[in-house]
Amino acid sequence: MLCPLTAYPQQIKMRKIAYIALFISVFWSCQVQQTIVDRPIVFDDERIALTKEYLLQRYNVEQNNPEIKPTMIVLHWTAIPTLEGSFDAFKDTKLPNWRPDIENVSGLNVSTQFLVDRDGTIYRLMPENYMGRHVIGLNHCSIGVENVGGTDKYPLTKQQLKSNIWLVNYLAEKYNIDYLIGHYEYILFEGHPLWLEVDDGYRTEKTDPGTDFMKKVRKATKKFNFKPVPSK
Ligand SMILES: [Zn+2]
User: How far is the CA of 56 from the centre of ligand 1 (A)?
Assistant: First the structure.
């Protein structure tokens, strides 16, 4: 039989190692600094002109620049499994033929201020205060955050969740953000003072980025006391 007195130092040593490993991993996860990587899409004179045209035609807003005053964050998923595929969807100035469903509305391509890769890397695709085309009715006041993936085969990752929470903190500390919404909630703003879309027939049904994802981001950012999404 093994004498307990000789076994203890070994157990204590193992426990010590386990505690040190745990401390290092917790310390490391808290210390990982998020950064924003600039990876600009094309925002040339034509895109600026089309953005101003969109503001005028869709929202009756006439101005000399494509700038917005952000008061809302809209979270999305791209439903495209790769970073490159997602980036390509936003890159060009004009709407490509694969989105003919909304082409008759405006030639301006869809875009988003931020794109979060599956490993959590945050890319800034355009100036934060330029209007992106990512949500009907509310582009004039909102910053879009797209996440690569989101399909059944490529559900959003834990790293993406962490980065979205970090981004919401970053944006809410920088701008006067009143609302944090998931794209699927945009329709609830019909009739709200922020809703400016002029065409009652121009709507698309959305499910991104999922109710579970929104619940987790909201829980982690509740200190900001964002206003509740209007109910119908
Ligand atoms: Zn979306």
Answer: 22
What SS3 state is found at 147?
strand
Q: Is 202 contained in some domain? A: yes
26 CA distance to ligand 1 middle (Å): 33
Together in a domain, 76 and 142 = yes
Tokens 């834990």 locate to: 158
Collect residues with CB below 5 Å from ion ligand 1.
76, 183, 208
Whether 51 and 135 map to the same domain: the answer is yes
pLDDT in tens, 112-147: 999 999 999 999 999 999 999 999 999 999 999 999
What's the gap in Å between 16 CA and the centre of ligand 1? Answer: 48
Lowest mean pLDDT among 60-64, 198-202, 215-219: 198-202
Flag whether 150 is in a domain: yes
Could you tell me where the DSSP H helices lie in 32-140? 45-59, 83-91, 100-103
CA of 35 to the centre of ligand 1 (A): 23
> Quick check: 62 pLDDT over 60?
yes
Ligand 1 center to 169 CA (angstroms): 20
> Is the predicted pLDDT of residue 10 greater than 80, yes or no?
no
Domain limits at 25? 1-32
**Number of residues that this document lists for the chain:** 232
Same domain, 3 and 97: no
CA 221–ligand 1 middle distance (angstroms) = 20
Q: What is the CA radius of gyration of the chain?
A: 22
Calculated CA dihedral for residues 213, 216, 218, 224, nearest 10 degrees: -140
Average pLDDT over residues 158-168: 98
Q: Is the pLDDT of residue 44 over 90?
A: yes
Q: Is residue 229, in this structure, part of any structural domain at all?
A: no
